[in-house]
Structures are given as structure tokens and as C-alpha cells.
Amino acid sequence: MDDALRAGVAVFNASDYHDAHDAWEAVWLDLPEGSDDERFLHGLIQFTAAVHHARNGNWTGATGLAESAREYLAALPDPYRGVDVGRVRSYLSALRADPERAERARPPRLRVDGRPLAPTDLGFDATVHVARLRAEAGGYDASTVETAIDLAREEIADDAGSRTRFTALVMDFATDGVHRDLVYQRLSEHVARRDRRRSDVEGLFE
């Protein structure tokens, strides 16, 4: 859960509210209903949706979600899993009273252990979640990105944690919005090259 949580926080802070929602949703759906973790992620998911609706002028949707999100987060200690939920609750109360505030200023940056995370602050495992989100949102081939992730994990294991070619490509794909298309092209080429090499080796024994 922690890697998905950190990934969602980082992309939320990058103003990618829908991607933050998706980062948390898959984990939230598997949690026991009514548990603290379930209420926590449910509240964050509705928080992101409230911000999204407010920024798009849907005041009714924004205020309703702000109220329900605040209720989900109400009984949790602050911080919870390192996240400053008190600050989130305060913003939700203000948003419910004045949803147009979302047009005047960005929502508060979420903090984990006192730090406002950005995508570039994440370790590899959390970055994997972001890479999958970027692939889905950008219409990239998910299987190619998934293969690159698997190859990166293999190289990390072989090299005792050093930053390998595929690690760098996956992390750049997740974090470099300006050059993402170019990074994906390079990532695809390296995946295809690795597949050809493996096919050549397998063919020797046929």
C-alpha cells in the first residue's frame, strides 16, 4: 500500500488528480470495508474527485464530495500513514463552503512524513505505479511498459540495486512529461532488442 500511496501523492502534487485517484483505487478496492486504511484511501479518492469537479466548475459535485471525503477522514489520527490528513480536512471544509476557491488557487500539496513528494522523489517500486498510470493515461502500450518494468527488476537484482538501463528508462518514462514520447520510443526499442536476443538464444536448442 505504501508505494501506491506515495505514487498517488506525487502525481496529485503534479496536478494530475485523475491519475492520483487511479493510483489509490486499485488498493482501496481490496481493503476491508470500514477499516482505517479503507476510509483513508476512500477519503483521499473523494478528495481528488472534489478538487477535479471544483476546477471544472461542477460546484454541486465538488461540495458533495468534499463533505463525504471529510467524513471518511474525520476519525483518523493526524498524520495517518505519514500523510497530513488534518490539512486535507481543513481544505475540504473550506472547499465545501466556497468551491470556487479551487479556481483561485491550487489545492494544498500533500505531504508524507512532512515532505511534499514529487514524482522525481519516488523510489523505483513507487515509480512503477506512476509508469503504469502514465502508460494508461497516455495511450502507450501497457505490455511494453510492463516488460520494461520486469527487465528493470531483473537488472536491479543482478546488479545489487544499481541504476540500470531499464530502471532509468522506466523512471524517466514516469517522470519526464516533456520527453515521454521519446523515452517511450527508446524503451520500446530496448524491449524489442532484448526480445530478439532471447529468441535467438532459444532458437539454438530447437
Automatic annotation (TrEMBL):
Q: Which SUPFAM superfamilies match?
A: TTHA0068-like
Q: Please name the InterPro entries in this protein's record.
A: DUF309, TTHA0068_sf
Q: Specify the protein name.
A: DUF309 domain-containing protein
